[in-house]
Amino acid sequence: MPYFVGWIAVSVWLYAYFLPMGDFALKISLFEDIVGDTTFYFYVMLIFGSLIPLLFDGKRFVPASFYSLIISLVCFIVVLFLGPGLPSKIIMLIAVPCIGHIFISHVYAFFMVLNNSEKFYSMILVVLLPKVLIYIKPLLGSTQLTLHPIIILIFFIMITLVFSTYYIKTHADSVPSFQKVKAPIEAYSLMPVIFIVFALNDVVAPAILQQMSTFAKSQIESYYFWGILAGLAVVLLLQAGFSMNICSMLNLSFAFLALGFVVDIIRIQYPEVILVSAVCFGIAYSIGIVNVYYLAGFMIKKFQSIYFYRTGFLISSLCYLAASIFVKIFGQGEMLVPPIFMAFVSICIVILFFLLTPFFIKMLYSGEWIDDAYREDISQCTRLEAKLKEYKLTPAEMEVCRLLLEGYTLRQISGIQSKAYATINTYCTSIYRKLNINSRVELLLLLQEYIK
């Protein structure tokens, strides 16, 4: 639970208040009034955060994040009292590397400690909570409190992190280390899928929305927010409720993204369609971000390869760097990009979808990735059990199916489980019906790759 709470808290803290991802990031006077443009501090945080997992073992730097959090909390309080000025800027420069350490420690814990269920539901909250804060930003800004409500919230989040990181520090043995083993080539092939989903959802689509001057930004943000809520509802309904596989969900995210870009092409003549694009981009964002983090999470924990992790982390850091530069140029600048240029960008992205679709299908529809998504934890469940869960088999039916695959007859299974033959026969009939087969031969052919 401390890892779960800590990951959500640090994600809300950074994604809502610190990362310079366009005007959709929540602005707070604590940083900008004191240090001016936070972009330089973001780069410092990114560099230090990237170096830590390259130089140190997670078993060492994750528990040590408690000390970085204490330093950050002290700097936070001191800056509040000092106000704007050179001393505050220097103090913030001390705090920023510590913030990078805190963030990367919780990223490591997300990948290596949380089980699949915790990864899935924590990502839903990580997507939801920062956007809720952005949506209620005008209400928070209109209060007459001595301390701004957002400052109070940051302080509350940091106190929560103090308790969670202290628990992690005192239970350092629960943090695993990566191994010097190589991950399969197919795993590296999925990295482009993950980074393309991130870039389009978290950078390009919001930047396009920022370029629309016909509507008030608050109106576009409102439609974008409701699209995110709709996307999370789709995730909960289809994945948590109906166990739709992760590949289908990513395809759904790509479909809404493509629809948003297609609609954006015609906004030159019909400016009001940007609101439809905002809803589509919001739905695509929540479905895509939840699932790419989820996919990366169980892949990294499965392989526990230091090479795979470092490669992915270096590329993701470069993506964040490129994203911040992109946003600086297109998202936060005063100059609006000509609509015809944005339409051209949208057309190129739609064409890119069609070109990359065969690659996505080939990489994503590997049975192993789909099966892993159904495992409660990547280290506690077999691929066979995950596959049978996809067919909605009950635990009793799964056990009978496993014994059938091992070559036991129904009467032998009846004796092994001390159950009546008629009961075992009923289980077998139900298994065949759910798998849409008629014989044991078909069962063996269907599940032969899962038999050890």
Structural class: mainly alpha
Mean pLDDT equals 77
What is the beta-strand fraction? under 5%
Number of domain units: 3
The geometry reads as globular
Strand and helix map with partners:
Layout: H1 2-17, H2 29-35, H3 39-55, H4 58-61, H5 65-82, H6 86-112, H7 116-135, H8 137-141, H9 149-170, H10 185-189, H11 191-210, H12 217-241, H13 246-265, H14 274-303, H15 306-331, H16 339-364, H17 367-373, H18 383-390, H19 395-405, H20 410-417, H21 421-435, H22 440-447
Helix pairs in contact: 1-6, 1-7, 1-9, 3-6, 3-15, 5-6, 5-9, 7-12, 7-14, 11-13, 11-14, 11-15, 12-14, 13-14, 13-16, 17-18, 19-21, 20-21
Descriptive report:
There is one protein chain. It is built from 22 helices and no strands. The longest helix has 30 residues, at 274-303. The chain is mainly alpha-helical. α1 packs antiparallel against α9 and α12 crosses α14. The radius of gyration is 24 Å and the shape is globular. Residues 20-30 have low confidence and may be disordered. The protein folds into 3 domains: 1-177, Growth Hormone, Chain: A, CATH 1.20.1250; 178-373; 383-450, Winged helix-like DNA-binding domain superfamily/Winged helix DNA-binding domain (Arc Repressor Mutant, subunit A, Orthogonal Bundle).
